[in-house]
Task: structure prediction
Amino acid sequence: MSYTAGAVLATIPSPPRGVWELGPVPIRAYALFIILGIVIAILWGERRWVARGGERGLITDVAVFAIPFGLVGGRLYHVATDWQRYFGEGNDPVDALRIWDGGLGIWGAIALGAVGAWLACRRHGVPLPAVADATAPGIVLAQGIGRLGNYFNQELYGRETDLPWGLEIYERVHPDDPARPAGADGVAVDTTPIAVVHPTFLYELLWCFAVAALVVWADRRFRLGHGRAFALYVAGYTAGRFWIELLRIDEAWRPILDVRINVWTAAAVFLGAVAYLVLARSRGPREEPHVLAPAAATGSSSAGRGDQRSDQPDQSDQASGSDESPPGDQGKVQGGQ
Result:
């Protein structure tokens, strides 16, 4: 279907390309937004972790483990659920390794990334659920930022629409050989749209930002702990992903009732997250600061008690950042960064 210029004056134009050549080095929008999201998630996670009473630098150390695991997990999920793109007739299986062309499944990224985070948490002696709570809003914000990479790659959009915020889709060709599939390297040959579709990248971006705000608000209001802030993020994200997936038209595995695999996955993960939210309430209030920084708490306590009389206040409370306030009161001020 083709569109005249007058029919699309109110629509969203697509970028003509998603890759730029800087000499021999390709600069890929997809990679840039993934990296930007990761950096923001780490910085925000560090701030929230310290506000809860944890040691500065811990989130960065965890990220060193979690990010490589997450990238591998995300790619494995994508390849497993879209195997026909790489192993079907006429396709090159080596393309499954070309992660820079796009294709990361958030479900696999979170699952295997959690394994890397767990290994790092064991190494530092801190609870994984507390780390997950501190990083939850940053992670979902990073997911939203990453969707801008799909916008530049002109991929993962929805079915056609006449809504004023429809996304224009252009014909793209490979810059070196028009006969080759364009892929992420494609360049628009004409900015006259060949279709106007639902901008599902934008829907998910806005939904992710809203979920990040929800998690921050709920964390401040209810002092969530023991993984409940992370579970709220997962429940909120999957609720949105469920209906956004129903709009998408890109090729995907449909194992049951001709419904996309990510719809089933979102539903199952949503139910699991809601169940965890309910069950984790029995674990009590948020973790105390000494649980989040065990090494620092132990060191300051042992150093302080040697020179103190029994009738003097323990200075280790001040060293651990309590500011002469009970951990619960301190969290009311700091807990919602």
